[in-house]
Structures are given as structure tokens and as C-alpha cells.
Amino acid sequence: MGDQSGLQRRLPPIPDAKTAQDQKVNRRNIIIVRINSADKLFAGSEAMDISLLKDKIKEFLTNPTNDPNLPEKEEKEIEGKIYKVSKGVISL
Fold first, then answer.
1. E strands, the chain, where?
2. Does the pLDDT of residue 1 top 60, yes or no?
3. Rounded Cα distance, 19 and 15, in Å
4. Residue 58 pairs with which residues in a beta bridge?
5. What is the count of structural domains for the chain?
6. Across residues 12-34, what is the average pLDDT?
7. Which residue from 5, 32, 42, 58 has the least number of CB within 10 angstroms?
């Protein structure tokens, strides 16, 4: 391609720093997964074996008993049906 030819594209404008906002997430909707220097795994404040992590996260996100310490749920329409969806966030 020469200097005078090419694809004409226009990039979106740079967002203002003032418009960028931090999202506020309710504390009950967050689980923090950490590994310490001794290679111990923590989900929330609880030490656990890695083989149990999947079940712990599944319980956290689904909140089957509507525990007030686990994430809230909101109703969302997905493909024409209403489903309860977790507001849970997993922080690594």
C-alpha cells in the first residue's frame, strides 16, 4: 500500500477520566481466592484443599439456601425467559 491508500477507520474518542467510575460491589457479593507464600489456598477466610475449591465457588455463586452472607441474585431475561442470576464476583 502506498502512503495515500489504506483502510479508513476512525477510532472511538478517548474517554474522559471524569466519566470513568469505579463500580461499587456489595461486600457479600465478593469471594477472594488467595494462595499464600506457604502454598496454602484460601477461599474467603477459609483455608482449603484445591480439590474443594470448585464446590466452594459453585455454592458461593448459586447460593441455593438464599443465605444472607452469600451473593444476591437478580432476575435477568435470557432468550425470552426470566432467570435468577448471581451478582457474585470472584477475585483472584
1. 30-35, 41-43, 46-48, 73-78, 81-86, 89-91
2. no
3. 7
4. none
5. 1
6. 80
7. 5
